[in-house]
Amino acid sequence: MFPSRHVFVTGWTVASQRQIAQDVLGITIGVKVSMPSSFRFLDNVALADLAFEAEGDSIEEVFYAATQAVIETIASSRTIDTSWERAIERSDRDLSELLFDWLSDIVYWKDAAGVVFHEAPLTVTKAGDDWVLRARLIGAPVDRQTQELRNDVKGITKHLYELKQDGASWKARVVLDV
Amino acid sequence: MKLNTAMRVNRITDEIWEIPASEKSGMLVPARIYATRAILQSMDSGVFEQVTNVACLPGIVRHALCMPDGHWGYGFPIGGVAAFDLGTGIISPGGVGYDINCGMRLVRTGLTLDDVQPRLERLMTELFRRVPAGVGASGFVRLDRKAFDAVMTRGARWCIEEGYGWHSDLARIEENGCLGGTDPTKVTDHAVARGINQLGTLGSGNHYLEVQVVSNDRIFDPPTAAALGITGQNQIVVMVHCGSRGFGHQVASDYLKIFEKAMRRYHIAVKDQQLACAPFSSVEGQDYFAAMNCAANTAFANRQVITHQIRESFAAIFGLSAEELGMELVYDVAHNIAKVERYPEGELLVHRKGSTRAFGPGHPELPEIFRQTGQPVICGGSMETGSYLLVGTDRASQETFGSTMHGSGRTMSRAQAKKAIRGEQLQQQMKQRGILVKAVSMSGLAEEAGVAYKDISEVVETVDRAGITKKVAELRPIGNIKG
Predict the structure, then answer these.
(1) Contact at 8 Å (CB) between B284 and B133?
(2) A1 within a domain of the structure (yes/no)
(3) Count of structural domains, chain B
(4) Containing domain of residue A57, as a range?
(5) How far is A156 from chain B (nearest CA, A)?
(6) Distance of alpha carbon B138 from alpha carbon B131, whole angstroms
């Protein structure tokens, strides 16, 4: 059943694994460091479409949570294999635009490659004035027989779109055109 | 009267309500809403905010309009109509909608309910197989870039040339299924990559293919119905609702970004970022118009290829050719588009977003076959209720830039609808009521439950009483395919 309120999705990024494994644990392989992420769908924001709010304790976490929200809107990630992968790198001075363009990339690859997604490990770092996103979009070709398909998201919209720091956490509000 | 706005709303007639230009800073013209008192009261606050935002856009002529199926949309409300002077006015992707040339198509048959009922399960299975729907669906037509350019420039004409339809179909499609003023070089490779594999696919959301029945007691204008090939007697017809898929959306998204920057250059301020626009006469405005026409033509082609697959499905199940089954097109009409049309003020760019063109009898732009009846208007209701065939009127040309409603309009969000009912439960309930549903996504099905929509009959009654369209027949669903 499609989640309608708070959904907590636990995942991990390869970059986070590497960094934390190396910096904190002093090892390089065999450790998965979870990146908790949360998103919730909003009831009354977009009558004909779908809106969600994603939250995280860091920029990377809120990007990851928003990514998972888009992925789960398209199909149930647990039913999607990992046979397709695409490395994506983007940079922008504006963090909010970076998130918008990255989420739009997910929609683009859905149509251009005919795939749905399992997850997208990612990092967001600062390089000079730019924010840099490096991600691996992982999924599989669409298969009606084995996958739980949901909404054919057509695009990310700027309606009520927001990425902001709220105290110690980061929040993103996104309306998806379905 | 309690409304979801603090703005003053004056009664013009029982079906027309006006918000004076004095109600919001920057309004250049009044805003008019077509609605009964009850529908007006049920409209969300977004309608009032957005239709008055539209009234602030440069070059707007006469009124900003909203039809009775209106609800909140991106920038413009769904159900919005606005016309702009070609010299001083703007063009806005938000006034067209992301799904460029989303529209309705109706195909008639010579079959009756008695003919179809025993084979309905097989028919719906065949349609579900031949008309791909839902996430990631790709069509059977394989195109390279050159062929896709031909689709962008020739629309439904390309389909007929390739054998996906009959030559007689073209006169029964708005603009003969092919808009001029296209330029594929104004479309990004990104947009092409999203659309090149999607010709002949339904998509998801509120898009559908529906097998419907027309009973004698639901024909309101027998002479007009007969002239359009609608005979009643439990006649079977097929309705399609879809558009330009990911391609059209990408065109809109690409130009929204361009327009955000262009607005600063042209010193245009808008009340909502989703109203991003450019002067129609500017390079950016003309580029978007050319790209939008490309997307509109792919939508005509998309519905044409789907029609081909519908004809093939019926032929396979009933063992007769589509010609023998009398599967003529009734009409195909856009409800997300911007077009240059002539009105007393001169040539205007008319934006229709969730609104249908509704030219009356004798209109010079209609082909001979519709000169007596007026242009057919196809309005889709929820999958649980029914849909309507109407015709345009002279009054629409005079009052609403030749425009009317397009559907029933939502009253409940998708998230709320999924709380109200599960997809499997809805599918079972509809089967018990004689409506067979095939859906790719059960959660998507729940989102489209009838409870999430306005009563289409009340919306249709409003435009009929207002005189901007006349109802011809009601079409009741017996089979539905959803993404």
Answers:
(1) no
(2) no
(3) 1
(4) 6-177
(5) 9
(6) 9
